[in-house]
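Subject: mismatched residue count in predicted assembly?

I count 414 residues in my input, but I want to confirm that the predicted structure covers every chain. Input:
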Amino acid sequence: MLITISREFGSGGRELGKRLADALSIPCYDNEIIHFVAEQGGFDSNFIAHAGERSMKAFYPGTIASRLMVQPVNSLASLKIEIVSAQQKILRGFAESGDCVIVGRAADIILEDFRPFNIFVHASMASWIERTLARQHDGENLTAKEAERKIKEIDKHRASYRSDFTQTKWGDKANYHLCINTTDIEIKKIIPALVNYIRIWSEKEKG
Amino acid sequence: MLITISREFGSGGRELGKRLADALSIPCYDNEIIHFVAEQGGFDSNFIAHAGERSMKAFYPGTIASRLMVQPVNSLASLKIEIVSAQQKILRGFAESGDCVIVGRAADIILEDFRPFNIFVHASMASWIERTLARQHDGENLTAKEAERKIKEIDKHRASYRSDFTQTKWGDKANYHLCINTTDIEIKKIIPALVNYIRIWSEKEKG
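Triage response: the counts match. Full output below for your records.
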């Protein structure tokens, strides 16, 4: 059983993935993947962590960006290929090692041939802002307006990350088995119903 | 508990609505609504039945269409207003009379202030075609190609029907609590999980 979670920032998709994995007693891979990739591939982990969500230049003004100044197109392209190939290798490794939940990283597309159960988690902007403000780091003091800007920016980069792998659109319901709107929902409470749903689907797949 | 089902043609949304209503022991309104409207409003029931799914001209070449030849815009507009207003009245009547499932008719929007649980049911084109061919009427002998054309046409008119009521887009996941992809799913098997999910949501709403 392989479950992928794609999510809008602030929708609680990561929480949903972790709780689902707990309920199924299987591992949930999220940031762990990224660090693993970083170690395997010899990449700077901060770079890898953000490659999917920010533009490279914004994160590496002094290093990558300066390399890009010399050979902008080729360097960027070959760097992306390296990352994509490393991530594919790692994701496949996880999928092959047993049942698991993978949050983000376009795992639904990369692991398509494993026939995963694909969930998209979304919520209303009001609900995103509420969740984002509730889980601010110490010292971070975003206003609602700033939170909204941050959410939009991160989602834009998630969509663009996805487009490195596939022509299918991020968040298009046709690509997922279930799209869950968490706006009015307490995530932990829906887990039993989800487990039930996924088990039924999974039996059908086996049969 | 008010549940609305919007669906792509051939996705099994109507079956899902009926089974869900059975499991909850509440009524499911689908074509019944339309006939009821037709009787109440004094409309020709065949006209009402198709107003949401076909262009009026295509269905009424000799009657409505000829009226439209005289005053095309106003007649069409006032006819639409009459239908919309009659449907709103009927739908509200159903919602006020108790828990129920309503399939189609933009009930999610029309009954928005009842805070319904809104489901969108969709499936891959291959799966639509399979379902559509499986449930052909006697004498109907569609090819897969013809079925695809029919499906696209009906969905186009459903989307356009919706646009009489609202600016929000038909099938946009943001408007629904749950989007269910029935491509790999035997509908009757997922009903218990759905009932569970909706009960959790409904408790949250009450609490």
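The first strand of chain A starts at residue 2 and ends at 7. Marking this ticket as 'not a bug'.
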